[in-house]
TrEMBL record:
Enzyme Commission code(s) on record: 2.7.4.16
Annotated Mg(2+) 5 binding sites: D250
Keywords assigned by UniProt, alphabetized: ATP-binding, Kinase, Magnesium, Metal-binding, Nucleotide-binding, Thiamine biosynthesis, Transferase
CDD domains: ThiL
Record lineage: Bacteria, Pseudomonadati, Pseudomonadota, Alphaproteobacteria, Hyphomicrobiales
Catalytically driven reaction(s): thiamine phosphate + ATP = thiamine diphosphate + ADP
Name of the featured protein: Thiamine-monophosphate kinase
Gene that this polypeptide is encoded by: thiL
Binding site for Mg(2+) 1: D75, D151
Length: 358
């Protein structure tokens, strides 16, 4: 992947510069570092929110809305781990922001803003960074999550991104991971496994399951890996009706297992009830082994939630009104652990229930 300009110096903040990107004589006399120039050229134009203070300060000023609690989340993405080094820079930018917005959605929060830290190898391709910044700014505007500042540094390693996102929920409205209890239904939004199959398609396009797909189905799976869809419209319904929620980032089965462990109860997921896209269903029909990737592969960024059984109809109606489908795929019980039932109705054991860095 193209990397940063030889003039980049590590350790600074996202502050605008008076450098070669400014034409007046005084700017030329007080030219900043290469890092300052990058900030001025690529990041200041997308940090237009008042609370970013024009990126002239070392920190942003954020005032929580009255009657709200702050919700904070951070995700890091590394080339070769979370995305391919040759992915389009616009796609990398969108994924970096959206995975954080997914966390806010799961907590019932609306976005307030975000901070970006980016570590770039040398030398920089201005076209790459320009496409990255433009897409980041467009998504920040689309999802109402302004870029408020951050940090730019150089690295001898791969491109590394870290975004800290801030959100707000009405006081007491935070949806925890720890609230599931016996007698709850387990639901998930959207469809599961598309991104994991998109990754497998990238790695092994000749697998039988993928040879059975149309060009349109392959493109759908590839897009789901590149461009997560944060379920922010579901936030209000989660606040009103969910006992527990988290986003599905590491794998459906593993993430529900984490929720059960944190909540101190047991759960059951039925593979036959897990919602699949047409592309995922076709791939599994052609190659049943791909079911394991669907259930444990991760990168879905859908919402996993526990809802009291008597609240399921109104929760589903609220989700539908928000334009998001939710599906009951299991339930909780007294005990511990998470049981998985296969398509044949028998217990199913996966070699890997979720992705883990270590």
């Amino acid at each position: 992947m193209p990397g940063p300009d030889p003039g980049i110096q590590g350790g600074g903040d996202m502050r605008p510069a008076s450098g070669p990107f400014f034409s007046d004589a005084r700017s030329a006399m007080t030219a900043g570092s290469g890092e300052d120039d990058i900030i001025a050229r690529y990041f200041r134009p997308i940090a237009t929110h008042a609370e970013a203070r024009g990126l002239f300060d070392d920190a942003a000023l954020l005032t929580p809305p009255p009657g709200c609690d702050l919700v904070l989340t951070k995700d890091a993405l590394v080339a070769g781990v979370h995305f391919f080094a040759d992915d389009p820079p616009a796609s990398i930018a969108r994924k970096a922001l959206r995975v954080n917005l997914s966390d806010l959605a799961a907590k019932g929060a609306r976005p307030l803003g975000a901070l970006l830290a980016i570590a770039l190898p040398r030398p920089m391709d201005p076209e790459w960074l320009g496409a990255f910044a433009e897409a980041l700014g467009a998504d920040a505007e689309r999802f109402g999550c302004p870029i408020l500042g951050g940090d730019t540094v150089s690295t001898p390693g791969p491109v590394t991104l870290s975004i800290t996102a801030f959100g707000a929920v009405p006081t007491g409205g935070f949806v925890p991971r720890t609230g599931a209890a016996p007698g709850h239904a387990l639901l998930v939004s959207g469809t599961i496994g598309d991104a994991a199959l998109g990754l497998q398609l990238r790695l092994a396009p000749d697998r039988p399951g993928f040879e059975a797909l149309s060009a349109e189905q392959k493109a759908f799976l590839a897009d789901r890996f590149l461009h997560p869809q944060p379920r922010l419209p579901l936030a209000e319904a989660l606040r009103d009706h969910a006992a527990a929620a988290m986003d599905v980032s590491d794998g459906l089965v593993g993430d529900f297992a984490k929720m059960m462990s944190a909540s101190g109860c047991g759960g059951l997921v039925r593979a036959a009830q897990v919602p699949l896209s047409d592309a995922a269903a076709a791939a599994i029909a052609a190659e049943p082994a791909l079911l394991a990737d669907v259930l444990g592969g991760g990168d879905d960024y859908e919402i996993a939630t526990a809802v009291p059984h008597d609240a399921v109809p109104v929760f589903r109606a609220a989700a539908q009104a928000a334009g998001i489908a939710v599906t009951v795929i299991g339930e909780t019980y007294k005990g511990d652990g998470l049981d998985l039932v296969g398509l044949d109705g028998q217990p199913l054991y996966l070699d890997r229930r979720s992705f883990s860095h270590f």
